[in-house]
Amino acid sequence: MADLTNSSSDYFLDYEVPADQVPDTTRGRPFFVASLVIAVVLVGIMLVCGAGNCLFIGSLARYKQLRSLTNLLIANLAVSDVLVAAVCCPFLLDYYVVKQLSWDHGLLLCAATNYLRTVSLYVSTNALLAIAVDRYVAILHPLRPRMQRRTACCVILTIWIVPIFISVPSAYMASETPYAHVGGHAHKTFCAQIWPVDQQVYYRSYFLLIFALEFVGPVTVMAVCYVQICRELWFKDVPGFQTEQILKRLQRRRRTVVVLILVLVAYVLCWAPYYGFALLRDFYPTLISRDRNSLVAFYVIECIAMSNGVINTLCFVSVRNNAKRLKRAGKFPLRLVTFVAAKSVDEGEARTSSLRVTEDAEGARR
Questions:
Q1: How far is CA 307 from CA 14, 33, 35, 212, 302, in A?
Q2: Model-level pTM greater than 0.70?
């Protein structure tokens, strides 16, 4: 549900449309097509994010050898996506598709759904940022010790605490608003973040803060990290004699970085339209058409943004037989390891190999 601005008496939403002339967005082919897209996306989120991430979390809980730092960071993504898939998506499917934009579950669930979705988004963003920084340190500074358990716990707590606090307005401003279509028949209830017109300055300031803190800033830092990582892996020669084992490890690292870059690109492609539409709607509303199709377009953009969780799940979690690593731990129906975290053992070997190569090179020079 969107972040919107509303005059409680005269106008509905922030499109300056009189309350008795609100167009029925649920009529016509555009909404029918949009509802199909939304239904497919939400069902996909429930199936892929729900099932896949639950299996991944279960594998981490069962197998200690998979609990690397990178795995724990990815687990934050998994937990946030599972919460949305299990708690939010069923209500959203009912709201968008079954009831056709009518909320019948009360104000408490309306606020909780908005709040949980917002927290999940910011947790995912912070986790992706932490993963990028972790990869940066591991690859560009291989001899530097990894962060201690206490530091890792602080990072994970920060990933969650910051979104929990900055998402409070999404729950506080959530509102159930009955609205009438042309003809005066009030038969639907709108559920969303609704800010009064007299608090428009506060809303815009809050939105710009969130936009900088949870989109522009993280995307910039992640892009810089991956550019530096690419320079290190593709454009710098490995010192010393390059054995076949070292070359294979380098190829695995390159594949890992390619996946991470694809995750970043997918994140930007999914969420940039959402933030872009919100910027136009809240700061340049005259540039957006005020007919019903503009609202339908936003609903589709919003659900496409949510589908980023599916992409993350498919990129980070691969279902494959990992018998060599998990054979001693017992049988597991689907042995799940992350594409990135499966390299945790290799990273330890890489640091040792780098040290040996450096020592050998220095010895040869002497």
A1: 26, 17, 15, 22, 9
A2: yes
